[in-house]
Design goal:
- By secondary structure, the chain is an alpha/beta fold.
- 28% of the residues lie in helices and 22% in strands.
- It is built from 5 helices and 9 strands, in the order βββααβαβαββαββ.
- The strands form 3 sheets. The protein has a 5-stranded mixed beta sheet. Strands 1-2 form a two-stranded antiparallel ribbon. The protein has a two-stranded antiparallel ribbon with strand order 8-9.
- The longest helix has 13 residues.
- The protein is globular.
- The chain starts with 11 loop residues before the first strand and ends with a strand.
Length: 171
């Protein structure tokens, strides 16, 4: 599994909406969040996806792009996205290439899926700042993602009643 400090793999793939996604296009511009989930329409994925959906505006405030990745087909992902009102894109990893790049592929073992449920947060320079895997506490991924984004962002709040007041940095 990729670790904190590792560089993001170069990715050039088509998203569920038909647009092209390239990690190089975001370097120096946006933080990137990839969360891997085993299967579209499963109970855990639905909970996790809806948790990300409900926190999406907050994620955007940290200048981050959120991408969900599963082995489901583009058509399955498109339907799941529509049914659950997801505002973020999904990547189809039907052959497991991304899972291998991120180091989360595993062999089938009884009921375990072929990929770990994992999330990776990369800063604007493409360096991994957060890597975590919670197989059963699926909504914790969102909390951890927001925690890492807060840590790597220089969030400055300006007092609304006095715009000339010095900024306050939140750590």
């Amino acid at each position: 599994m990729l670790k904190v400090g590792n560089k993001i793999p170069e990715i050039d793939m088509q998203l569920d909406d038909g647009s092209q996604f390239r990690t190089a296009d975001f370097r120096g511009k946006k933080n990137l969040v990839f969360y891997f989930y085993p299967k579209d329409f499963s109970r855990g994925w639905t909970l996790e996806a809806r948790s990300y959906r409900d926190s999406y505006e907050e994620i955007l405030n940290f200048e981050a792009v959120l991408i969900g990745v599963s082995s489901g087909s583009v058509d399955e992902q498109r339907e799941f996205r529509r049914k659950n009102g997801l505002m973020f894109n999904l990547l189809s990893d039907t052959h497991g290439d991304l899972g291998k790049l991120f180091g989360i592929r595993r062999r089938w073992f009884f009921w375990l899926p072929s990929v770990k449920r994992a999330t990776f947060v990369f800063d604007k320079e493409g360096v991994c700042q957060g890597a975590f895997s919670h197989e059963f506490n699926v909504t914790r991924h969102v909390q951890d993602t927001l925690g890492v984004l807060k840590k790597i962002s220089n969030l400055i709040i300006i007092a609304p009643d006095n715009l000339n007041a010095p900024p306050i940095e939140i750590e």
